[in-house]
Amino acid sequence: xxxxxxxxxxKTPARWLYTLQLSTHRLFQQKVLRTAPVYSLTGSCNxxxxxxxxxxxxxxxxxxxxSTLRFFFVLWQRHINGFHLTHYDTKHKVLSFTCTHYNTxxxxxxxxxxxxxxxxxxxxxxxxxxAPNLFPECSYTLTLNxxxxxxxxxxxxxxxxxxxxxxLKQNLSLEPSDTSPSK
Length: 183
Ligand code: SF4
Ligand code: SF4
Known about the structure:
Blueprint: H1 5-32, E1 39-42, H2 50-53, E2 56-58, H3 61-65, H4 67-81, E3 83-89, E4 94-99, E5 102-103, E6 108-109, H5 117-121, E7 141-144, H6 145-156, H7 162-171
The site of one iron/sulfur cluster has 14 residues, from helix 2.
């Protein structure tokens, strides 16, 4: 169901708050803890819609221990974001939903311009997880940052021919081999 003006209005400050929280967290990780992301993302969205089929939210400890807070959080998700709770994975503290804005036929969002910040941030958010993973349908690619550095060093090695560089990178799985099946 498309967002009306009330939902659009309520979603705006929530989006700002989420973005501010996420930016602060990432800045803290980089500048204070000096932890660089292990992976980087490349590519662009092919619009497969997979990430809209079952939007999931990893919740903090407070929401996990307090069923009252969780109740209001889920209520907000249902009535403002249009997310209906389907499952709560208590072990990993992840809430899974179906989204009423997602059209399974067209694979489009009926309220794209007022979609929540978590939808806008996907798939960057996977870089913040312990074991980054993408849907097989997703056209983005996760690359190990150390692999990127190694590939750059090989590219700079003038003692190798272009063919030898390519072969070496393929052998080290730094780039797809010629025989890889295309998507
Ligand atoms: S609000 Fe839109 S972008 Fe977000 S999960 Fe639903 S359909 Fe996808
Ligand atoms: S899964 Fe990846 S490619 Fe598919 S819609 Fe989401 S971001 Fe785009």
